[in-house]
Amino acid sequence: MKRSILITILLLSVYSVYAQDTSRKAVSVTSTVIKKGSELQKMPMSVKITDPKIYDKAGNVVDSLEAIAKVKSFLYTLGWAANKDGEYKRTLFKIDPELQVMIDANTKKLLQPKNTKLREGLVLDLRPLSKKLAHKEMDGKAVLLIFWCDGCFNGSTPDAYKEINEVLTKYKNPDKLEIIAITHHLPEHAMKALMKNPIVNNRHIVDAGEINDSYETENQPLLILTDQTHKILYAIKGNAAITPRILNNTLKEI
111-253: which CATH architecture? Predict the structure, then answer.
């Protein structure tokens, strides 16, 4: 059944940025809302979507498995759009590459690590890891550091790292990529937290307060990806919606 979609199109899911407010220990959300057309309207914050089906921009129903596959390709996103009756529907959108570049740049700026030595293009200093991991173990490999804390990534949602884990599972290769999960929690606490929120990794370092201090993580989520020469390709704090896609596209090239 054809449905007329209002000119107002809201692409929310892919453009949400989850940033940790370390001063209040609460998660705040910043969203970029994209609107098209001459008549712009805001979507009510309390809107409820009761229709379980997924639609394309023309209002046609999209098979749910097809929609999931397209979203996982990182070429599409699932957002919301209103039809002529003002009803909001889950809608599949093709991502605009030019717009995505702008979103990526703004997100990276907003969530850049506190430590100025963790900027893209700089060589990552691996010495803080030396007490736990010999440098030779990382020679010639790309390195991914995942600093985490219990309940800090996407709040207390179970399996909060699911999208990132799906990407890492595709590219996990200990001979080429060293994935190191790091937390300040003690072993028992870390084990319980990981039962709820597993993180794909090759090595796990717990009770790593000293390492966290060296990288100035403030014991909050931080992700750093380097190439084989340990040049930083991506560094971001908090939980950014752009991370799974950027990891996928970057690891594909490494």
Answer: 3-Layer(aba) Sandwich (3.40)
